[in-house]
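Hey, resending since the last one bounced:
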Amino acid sequence: MANTYALILAGGSGTRFWPLSRDAKPKQLLNLFDDTTLLNQTIDRLEGLIPKENILILTNQLQEAAVREVASDLPPENIFAEPAKRDTAPAVALGAGLIAARDPEATMVILPADQLIKDVDSFHSVMRDAIATASNTEALVTIGIKPTWPCPSFGYVERGQKATISGLNLENPPHDVIKFREKPNAQLAEQFLRNGNFAWNAGMFIWSIPTLMNELTKHTPELANFIHELIKSNDLKATVDAQFTKLNPISIDYALMENASRVLNIEATFDWDDVGSWLSVSKYLEQLDDGNTSNSPVTKIDSQNNIIFTKSKETQVALLGVDDLIIVQTDDSILVANRHQADSIKKLVDQLPAELR
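The structure tokens again:
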């Protein structure tokens, strides 16, 4: 795996986790489940798969200091801050350029920093097959999650027949991708689940740099040219600062995946949670009676289906006659929200004083 690199995307805002998350310390930098952050777990998950010197992290300037603190065992030059927000396609191009400047023949694994995966052995098995596939074909490889319910909040991948790849003995064989599907309405999500050949788009991509360059040259030449500039640059930071903000903001799905010549999908055999809201976190808290979950001691009367999270983990919480609440306490803020509006917390954050965001 000496010529395999990982790019961890760690610049998300995570506003659904306010008040614990803030602009400078979003979801991937929080200790939601134990004493380590999701970013730490993403890095540690790569041990034995990709050398640490080949792990790069892309973040933003506001979060750079915190990311460097969390990822202090990586080479400092492997952590790079985008000068501006430009969506995932420019971010991927930036990461590809940084990797290609080191090895233009490299294979590249792209991973979000904020997903929870516990089965490391299965993760390694799937990733090794994805890397082998990407290294030996001219295909872009994606990882799909087998849907467990008709979720309307995820993008979907429509999977076709098992792909024919000569010379590779894979434990996790890829399938051809028929089409990428945007977030569906509830009815369409139900149909996807019934059909049985749809996967959730996990946002994990694997490809060789030459294959990526060929596809970008055909479909998004602006990004291919940007990568070429990075490859020949004598000052990467200066080149990024001069050119990155000029790139068109667009997602990697729109810019590349939906137009590529050949895309393959490998279905994950590992557990996976994108930890999208406090509802996701509640599954990993202590499960109390009456549907209540908490990381702190709770005394309650006539209260059901509440989620409680306190920063100290020792704060006594008393509930009286309340149902379906999310209650989160930090040093300077308290959130009380209806659990059925968990996804709207980010709208609330927009109305808060700047110092609390």
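The longest strand covers residues 198-208.

Sorry for the duplicate.
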